[in-house]
Design brief:
Blueprint (H helix, E strand, L loop, with lengths): L3 H10 L5 E8 L6 E11 L2 E10 L5 H16 L8 E4 L3 H13 L3 E5 L13 H12 L3 E4 L2 H9 L7 E3 L20 E5 L4 H4 L1 H13 L5 E5 L5 H10 L6 E5 L3 H9 L3 E4 L8 H8 L4 E4 L13 E4 L4 H14 L5 H12 L1 H15 L1
Parallel strand pairs: 1-3, 4-5, 5-6, 6-7, 8-9, 8-11, 9-10, 11-12, 12-13
Antiparallel strand pairs: 2-3
Length: 360
């Protein structure tokens, strides 16, 4: 799940370029280093060569950091010299890319997904900030998934003359419109069930307000995570058992079938960049109700949904009630077409191809 955005960008780029992905992760079950090199191919033109290196985590941070860098170096030695290094998520990987630029002259670009730069999140530490500023300064290009995140990085003094938005990828061959008709409005929510950011508790409070008004609905909450059981208990305490369903983690066709058979998507996050689930909902022809946080307002507007302030479950309940009355007015094909033109594998792949050719 943590690497999903990176995987989708890599697969899109692999439509037009030879892409290798290095994935490094600590694992207490390995004795030293474990290397797995495979090719994950969907078809002859859509291949990503992947090297996974697992290293033993230490209680001492300097030792773990050394093992992290060594693990990446072990992976790089298995590959031909790259023409370009594309770093996803700072800061340690950016240091590796900067080193290769200094030693080998290899240009690098950065794609940042992390919300740690946004107001209310933690981006601190003198050394971390200094290293991040250096890495960003010497990158050929810095891309972010929203303009909002780019501005947040600039506000932290992360300067680069070339910032641009690189859209997240939606597999429009998978996420599609499914004609259906529900007896009562069906609300869809998809998240990683981390309440601090996703505010599922606020969504449940809003659903309770709707139930108290005797409004008929069905809410389907998809996903799993650290607060999954706590949210199930909260729903029970609020006596929402008859109208709220928790599916757990769904993937692939199963996820699409449940999502596309909903009537609209709801997100209640306290902070975000641009959740790909919003784009997936549009690809399924669903309008969206969301809190106005991060870069969500860059994609959600009056033509495709409703925005409400964060941490206000009363306003969220009002917006959901309004959407229950109006979701029929949104044209599913128009919602989907907008996503296909900008966020498909082909569209993002061509954008990345153009970036790479300018640097090579």
């Amino acid at each position: 799940m943590f690497g999903l955005f990176v995987q989708r960008h890599a697969e899109a780029a692999a439509l037009y370029n030879d892409i290798s992905v290095i994935y490094v992760h600590p694992d207490e079950n390995v004795s030293n280093y474990e290397i797995v090199h495979d090719n994950d191919s969907k078809d002859a033109t859509h291949r990503v060569s992947t090297i996974r290196v697992y290293y033993r985590k230490s209680r001492f941070k300097p030792i773990s950091l050394f093992r992290f860098f060594r693990a990446n170096n072990l992976a790089l030695k298995r590959l031909p010299k790259p023409d370009i290094i594309h770093v996803h998520i700072l800061t340690r990987l950016g240091i590796i890319a900067l080193w290769h630029k200094i030693i080998n002259g290899t240009p690098y670009i950065i794609t940042e997904h992390w919300s740690r730069y946004l107001p209310g999140n933690i981006f601190n530490g003198f050394l971390r900030k200094k290293l991040t500023k250096t890495v960003v300064k010497h990158a050929s290009l810095v891309t972010t998934v929203t303009e909002n995140l780019a501005n947040a990085m600039r506000n932290h003094g992360l300067r680069n003359k070339n910032y641009m938005v690189l859209p997240n990828v939606v597999d429009v061959d998978v996420f599609d419109i499914i004609p259906h008709k529900n007896a009562i409005p069906r609300i869809i929510h998809v998240s990683c069930f981390e309440d601090k950011s996703k505010n599922i508790s606020g969504l449940l409070n809003a659903l309770k307000l709707l139930k108290n008004k005797n409004i008929a609905f069905e809410a389907v909450l998809i996903g799993e995570g650290m607060d999954f059981e706590a949210m199930k208990h909260k729903a029970n305490d609020l006596r929402l058992d008859d109208c709220v369903k928790f599916t757990g983690m769904l993937q692939g066709r199963e996820l699409v079938n449940v999502m596309a058979n909903g009537d609209f998507l709801v997100l209640s996050s306290n902070y975000e960049n641009l959740p790909v689930v919003i784009l997936e909902a549009f690809a399924c022809g669903l309008p969206v109700v969301s809190t106005n946080v991060g870069g969500i307002a860059e994609i959600v507007n009056d033509s495709n949904g409703l925005l409400v302030p964060s941490q206000d479950h009363y306003r969220l309940a009002d917006a959901m009630q309004k959407m229950m009355q109006t979701y029929h007015n949104y044209d599913a094909n128009i919602l989907r077409d907008a996503i296909t033109k900008k966020f498909s594998n082909e569209s993002v792949g061509k954008l990345l191809d153009g970036i790479y050719k300018k640097l090579n």
